[in-house]
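dumping this here before i forget
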Amino acid sequence: MAAGERLLFGVVHLLPLPGSPRFSDRGAVEVRALTDAAALVAGGLDGFVVENFGDAPFFGDRVPASTIAEMTALTERIRVAVGPEPLIGVNVLRNDARAALAIAAATGADFIRVNVHVGVMVTDQGALEGRAAETLRERGASGVEILADVAVKHATPPAGFDLDQSAKDTAYRGLADGLIVTGSGTGEATSLARLERVRRAVPDRPLFVGSGARAETLVDLLAIADGVIVGTSVKRDGRVDQPVDEARVRALVATRAAAR
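structure:
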């Protein structure tokens, strides 16, 4: 990925996986995952992130081996179904970058998302600490890119937090390949002012919007960012718990032409 590409990524929000509190049926998990991935690709997106969204409440750090196994199997089935062209990312919630790298390496995925790559954020899982040193060494020469959040959603920064410095640290000390800026929560709009601050602080890394993107706001967002990761607004009725709506995906893709 490079700056200026204007990439549009969706999210395959996995239903609760085996072992998580709300798990009910493995077959239903696979069907939804494959159906959503197909709709995102058919609608014209450049790729998507596979994420264990249904596993709340999340482990703060390391997830169980069963979660890694299930996500690896599902990501592999998705890759076979959609073919080699779409870019695929992996996000193991809440912050298990090591697991995400393992899944990506095993399935040929292109990138991972890391919610807290450097520094500390206070979340509903407690204080999450970035593990950039471990993550970069774990990646090795695999070629898997790391997209890292700056002041991630569903989290509170510590006292004295500086957004500009955090962005610089994430890119230049944590060596993230790209940065993500979000709103306060899932589906919440990303502030253009915050996006501009991160862009000014780190002008030489791809910058993505990580929440709240809609067809109506896409042109303004892509005037600053290099791409968006969109989940809620391309679901049926704009509800995160619903399947992907291909018509909504196509509307978002059509809007990108104006941004270009």
